[in-house]
Structures are given as structure tokens and as C-alpha cells.
Amino acid sequence: MTDLTPLHRTDRGEPIRNLSRRGFLGAASGALFLGIGMRLDPAAAQTRAEGPAAVAPKPGTRVAAFLEIGPDSRVRLLSPFVEGGQGINTGLAQTIGEELDLDPARFTVECAPPGPDYAVVNGLRMTGGSFSTRSSFEAMRRLGATAREMLLRAAAARLAVPQDSLTTDDGRVIHAATGRSLDYGALAAAALALQPRDDVALKDRKDFRWIGKPVARLDMRDKSTGRAAYSIDLRIDGMLHAAVQHAPHLGTEPEAIANEAAVRAMPGVQAVQRLPGAVAVLADTWWRARKGAEALQVTWTKPLPEGIATVSASFSSASMLAALKGATEPGVPAEQVGDAATAFQAAAQVVEAEYDAPYLAHAQLEPPSAVARFAEDGSLDLWLPNQMPELFQQVAAKTAGLQPDQVRIHSPLLGGFFGRHFYYGSATPFPQAILLAKATGKPVRVLWSREEEFGMDALRPLSFARFRAALGPDGMPVALEIRAVGEGPIGRWFGALFKSPVDSSVVEGLDQKPYAIPNRTLTYVKVPHPVTIAFWRSVGHSMNDFFYESFLDEVAQAGGKDPLALRLALLKDSPRQRTLLNAVTDLAGGWKRGPFAAADGTRRARGVSMASPFGSETATIAEVSLKDGEARVHDLWIAIDPGAVVNPAIVKRQVESAAALGLSSALLEQVVYEGGQRQARNFDAYPILDRDRMPRVHVTIVESGAPMGGIGEPGLPGVPPAVVNAVAVLTGQRPRSLPLGKARLSGA
Amino acid sequence: MVQLSVNGHPYEVEAEPDTPLLFVLRDSLGMTGTKYGCGIGQCGACTVLLDGQAIRSCQIPVESIGAQAITTIEAIERDAVGARVVAAWIGIEVPQCGYCQSGQVMAATSLLKQTPKPSDADIAGAMTNLCRCGTYNAIAAAVRQAAA
């Protein structure tokens, strides 16, 4: 990839409040560029921006792009977002249905094809960053209200009555004076042909019928009966199945295949094809293709012998961590408050610690796949898991040698994503499907085996931070100094877009804390990873809140403070967070740090943590014991304040889901490189949280009325530090490196 | 040719004898409700019933099945216990992404067929399939509801 056609920023409206907390999207003004490993051509961008973008609709406003109302008054909603378990399809049906006055149960929701109408995340389209609901809530309400007004206008014409004499009730327009009514289905064709108005009024929140209620999810029956179709389930007539063997070292290429003829002669095998960094076998079934791919005896080019500039023959996660720890560059300031240097000179006590967290795999249960089919006119259909259809369309067009509008992107349900399905170069399978469909002249489905997925998945970066705190004579922290070393996915994949010298995905969770520590300095030191790095549920928060909140407990201990009392004191100027901390304490039946004896005789302790991820606030308490050298987490209590919610039942389940992933990362997960190769290739060597380790999870929602925050990710970051803080009480030792499962734990 | 009985119907399939049942179901018979997750019997997304017993179909070569009756998620609601399990799954709103849930429903159905009133330990022993969305608590609640 050298240059991608820039996306157009078509939203000329006001940025959505609270969306660009760190300028994530607010940074994009004028034409919006996605810097996916490419150089940008401003001149070309300008020309294009003055072309089609000049007539493009304001995203989220053109009713016909979103809603199809059938004769039965059921609605097919083309969603800007892709459903992957987070419940966005149901939330959108509630939000639009509320203003349209149609029961959300009557919605069928599909992910829309690429198009400027769907760029509702502040002029961009993506499913990620816990942005979906908070970014689109007002626009989707307005869309529903606009559609309802069109139905009323069409009904007024049909019935020859004044529009203000009409009302609606769940899919019907009613003329009360004459008792006549018309179903939305009977009005849809006429209504959708009308020009939408841009000044319709929205409902008063107190009149909400579905928003804010635990409306039943739309996808439960299909997902409980095997009928839900994911990318991996799609079958296209005449398609070939492809399995691949990737290079053992990222960046090396196939040189020779010793047994190519023998593999071609295996049952069902149709072709053996070389690809960038891989060799594919195509067959009439995937199992046959896979047996062929595994039988291939490939000689690969040699990686560099050593170093961390590439995934060299001696690269290891240990050597990468050593490089992060050993970085001596001064770095760039990410946050400066007060005068930390002077405060350290006057300190009564100084506390120092180093924290690290490993590479992590997404390990979503659906292995990645893609189906590519060229039509007779040369255009391309692609079915694939993705969180960003327009971006995938552009990369696909480039790969296929087409214009973006010759590529049709189909976005099925995601079998889990957690950040897996952004575009990550060689960690994304669809370019292989395109190249193979081109080479064979047939539709091709590429499916990566679980082993290939563990080998190629883009990873949550291994991370490191060094902390120093200055304590005053009263034991309270007066200064905090943090050095965060590494590289994050924002810098890697969106660096050309967000030109900030500080990679927000490296420092989020370390900056903008609610604690009243008067002197703070946070420094970002860039040390690039040679491996493919990724967004992973809660991104930088996934490790940084563990670092920060663990260190805060160390500060509390050094100052002779109780960790909850210290946090409450430091939150004296942060009423929202203080309220939340009290809410979680109440939820847990009060605070007791321990160790204490539980009713079942186990020796337990509790840990507490706070986090401010994705515009929401969380407070978490974990209750932990030790058994057979492992931490056993019995209960997690989580209070979340996302400002306001659309569906409290979905929110609670998402928080529980995120908490499970956070616990999994705290206890079990790490991708280990040795000799330039990943060691674990399946769940036997990369354990994830199982039923046996799942704690009870208690969630309470506090709707403070603050601007809406995210939901999908915020439940995660508080869990690792809450668990680790409890473990530190039980063992008398402070774990500063995850996962806990690396070491055998024993009681103090 | 391999002969199989799936959901009460006989099928003849062209497949090598060592082909895992999972891929015969998905790719030869088009029954994609049964999922591929790991291929090594770790995750349980491929769980089907073999003579009523939950098994991981990625670990079963088609040649070993013989006359045993295979039940997949596509037919689970035709079974009285399976229908109760599905109803509980929907009522409790168990699924998130849903990818593992076919296998979870099959494992739960097998458990309740053998142990209609399972203890917590029975549930822990039988419900060992992985869920990356962490729906384990909802799964246990749904099993209890289906058993009630």
C-alpha cells in the first residue's frame, strides 16, 4: 500500500460532544485521511473533497438510506455499525423506534454497505472505541423523528386532513377525529419519496417508551439456534476454499516448495498459490485445503539474525520488554501539571516502581475469514468481518486494482471482535482472498485455522511504564512522574491522521486522572514494536489502568493510608467519581480490605480501582483468595457511570463481558515470542478465562446525566488492578507484571 | 462414501475417512450452525450430540461414527429438552456475539437429558465450553432455568 484514496469528511455539523475526548476524531478537520501505512497526497484529497463530497448528504439524515418500511410495517434498518455482541442492533432499534413510534421488536438490523450516509461517528464510520451509541444517539433519534414526520405528511395527503390532526401509535398513523388509521407499511412508499425535513422536534425524555428500558435483544433466537450467520458461514456458488501456511517469521517470504506437486495431487486440491508472506492451498473443501497447507514443505527467506527493528531470528517478548525498560530517550511530554521536579526535591518520601503487561491476542472465537468474488464486469464483492467498511473498501480496491466504488463490502455479524477487525495489514485475511480469486478466476473463501490466527493476529502491545511518586509528611502524594514507553495502535495505524507527537493509545489511562495530585508529569517515549499491533478491548486502558491503580495502592501503603480512603481523599474535587466509588462500596456491602476469613473458610482480601475509559467512569472492587498458587476471584462489583444509557440490561451484560476479558488478561493471557516466533498456537497454550474461573459479577449503573460515554470497553480496565490489589494484600508481594499466572502465588 | 444419520435423515458424503465430523457438517452438508473454533477439542464451539451425548465434532473422524445418531443445533428445538434450553437461552438473553452458543446449547441439552436436576457441580462439570464474551454466569442461570 502506498496511498489510499482518502475518505471524505462530509459531516459539516457540530462535532458530537464528548466524542473527541482526546481529539481522537476531533483532530480530523476538512478532508479526513486514514493513514494506514501510506503516504498521503493532499492535492488529490483536495480535488476529491470538492467533487462528490460537495453533494454528499449530511451523515445520518437521509431516511431512505437507513430505513425500509415493509408492507407489514416491519422495518429493515441499515446500520452504520456492525453487531458483534455489544447489542448495538437492539440499541439502534430502540433509539430510532422511540422517535419513529415503532416497537423495536419490529426491526431487522443489518450492517449497511459503504456510503457517506453512514459516517455518523463525527464524520467517520467505524464500530469501535465504544463510540457507536454515544456518537449516533442524537442523530438516530432525529432520523426516527424525521421518518415519522414523513409518514405523517404522507398520511395527511392520503386522508386529506391537516397534518397536525394526526398522531401515531406503534406503527400506525391515527386520525382521532374520524377514527381512521393507516399502517406505516401502507404509507411507506409515499412517505420515503418525500423530502425529509431538518427541523423535526424530538420527544421529551420523560416520554420515552423504549429508550432507557431493558428492551429484549433482537438477536437472541438466531444466536441460540445456530441460525445467526457469521462470515465463516457464508457459502457462494462455485467458490474454492483456501487454507494458508504463513511465514514462521513475520516479513519473510516463500522461497521454494519442496513438495508442491505432491500437494497438488492431494484429494480435492485445485491449486497451490504463493502469496505475500504465505502459501495458500485451494481445494473443494476447507478441510482438504487445510491438509494440503499443513503438508506444504516451504523454505522461507531468512529473517534478520537479531534486533528488534524486525521480528528477527532472535526476537523475543523478553528482549522487547528489555528494550522498553532500557529506553533512554527523553521522550515527549504528554501531560504537565504543576512543578513535579520541585515537589520531588521537597518530598518526605519517594516511591518508585516499574510495571509491564504482555502482548495479548484477541482470541475471538470466530477464526477470521473472507470471501472474494469478482463479477463479470470486473467489480468485486467481499464478505468479511470488519469494523470499518469504507476503509476495507479502499484497501480492497487498491489490492484488486479497482476504484472503491467497484468494491461491494458485505459485513456479517462478528463472532467476537474486541478490536480484531480493524485493518491490520498482513494480520487481515481479505487481501489473500482477493489475490486468490484473481489468480483462479473463481470465488474464493480464505479461512485461517486457529493456529494461523494465533500466529498472525495483531496484538495488544507489550507495554511498560515507570512510576515515581513524592509523598508529603502527611503521607499524601504531592507529585507523580510517569514514563510510558512503547507504541500503540493509534500511532501505528492512524499516525498520518492524528499527527500528535503523543500516541494517545500509549498514555490513555495514565493521563487526565480525576485525582487531586497537584504536580504531575507524564512522558511518552516511543519505541516501535516489530510485531503487528492492534486495538484490543479498552486499548491503552487495558494495561495502563492496571499500572496506575496498582501504583496508587503502593503509594497508599507507603503513606500509611487505606487504599479506598486515599482515593476518596484524592477525589475531593471530583464529585462524579467520588459518587461512583461510594456506589461500588455500597454495592459490595461496604469496604473491607482484609485479609479476612470468608464463611467458607477461605482467606480473602479486596482490592479497589477506578478508571475513566471512553467517556465513562468506573469503580471496581474485587474479592480474591488464593488456591493452589493461583488467584481465585469470587466477586467483582462494578459501578459504571456512562452519563445515560439506552438499554440497561445490555449495559450490564457488556460490563460483565468486559470484566471477564479483563480478568482473563490479569490471570492468564500472554503472547510469548521466542526465536522470533509466537509460542502458543491454540487455546491449549493460550488459556483464556473458562467457566471455572468466572466470578460473580455485580453491576450497578449510575446515570449522572454527564455526556454519554462508551459501554463496550469501560468495564474492563478496572478489573486487573482491583484483582492485583487484592492479591498484594494476600501475598504481601506486589505483582507488577501480568499475567498473574506466570508466578505461583503464596499467602503472606 | 461415508454414510451418516444427521437429525434423523440419512446422508451420503464424499469425504476422506479421517475428516472431522465438524467439517462434513459445515462444508459437505451446509449445516453451519455448528461452529469451528479451535479444531483441537478445547473450545467446544463444535459440540453436537452423538446418541444424545455431547461430543466435540472437530475430534470425531467421520469413519468412527457408524450408525450413531447425530443431532446438531439445527434440530435442537425438535427435542423437548433442547427446546426448553433454547427458550431459557432466549429468556435469560445469554448470547453476546453468539458464536459459541450453538455449542453451549448442545452441551446444556446433553447435560439436562442425563441429569434433569443438575447441581452447581454438575453444571461446572458439563459446561466446559469457552466463551470469549464471558457469558458463563448467564449460561449457568439459563441451565438452571431450563432444569426447573
Strand element count of chain A:
27
Structure classification of chain B: alpha+beta
| Overall morphology of chain B | globular
Number of helices of chain B: 5
Helix fraction bin of chain A: 25-40%
What would you call the quaternary organization?
heterodimer
Unreliable stretches of chain B, pLDDT < 50, 5 or more residues?
none
Side-by-side strand order of the widest sheet of chain A: 9-10-7-17-14-15-16
- H/E element order of chain B: EEHEEEHHHH
The average pLDDT value of chain B, as a whole number, equals 97
Gap from first CA to last CA of chain A: 55 Å
Helix content of chain B: 25-40%
Whole-number radius of gyration of chain A? 27 Å
Shape, principal axes of CA atoms of chain A: globular
Largest sheet of chain A: 7 strands, mixed
The proportion of strand residues of chain A reads: 15-25%
Name the average pLDDT of chain A.
Answer: 92
Largest sheet report of chain B: 5 strands, mixed
> How many E-type strands of chain B?
5
Structure notes:
Chain A is an alpha+beta fold. In chain A, 28% of the residues lie in helices and 21% in strands. Chain A has 20 helices and 27 strands. In chain A, helix 3 (88-100) runs parallel beside helix 4, helix 4 crosses helix 5 (184-192) and helix 16 runs parallel beside helix 20. The longest helix of chain A is centred in the first third of the chain and has 28 residues, at 132-159. Chain A starts with 41 loop residues before the first helix and ends in a 17-residue tail after the last helix. Mean pLDDT of chain A is 92; it is low at 1-54. Chain B has 2 domains: 2-74, Beta-grasp domain (Ubiquitin-like (UB roll)), CATH 3.10.20; 76-147, Orthogonal Bundle (DNA polymerase, domain 1). Chain B has 5 helices and 5 strands, in the order E-E-H-E-E-E-H-H-H-H. Chain B has helices at 21-28, 80-92, 101-114, 120-126, 136-147; strands spanning 2-6, 9-13, 47-50, 53-56, 69-71. A 5-stranded mixed β-sheet of chain B has the order 2-1-5-3-4, with helices on both faces. Chain B is globular. The N and C termini of chain B lie far apart (44 Å). At the A-B interface, helix 6, helix 8 and helix 19 of A face helix 1, helix 2, helix 3 and helix 5 of B.
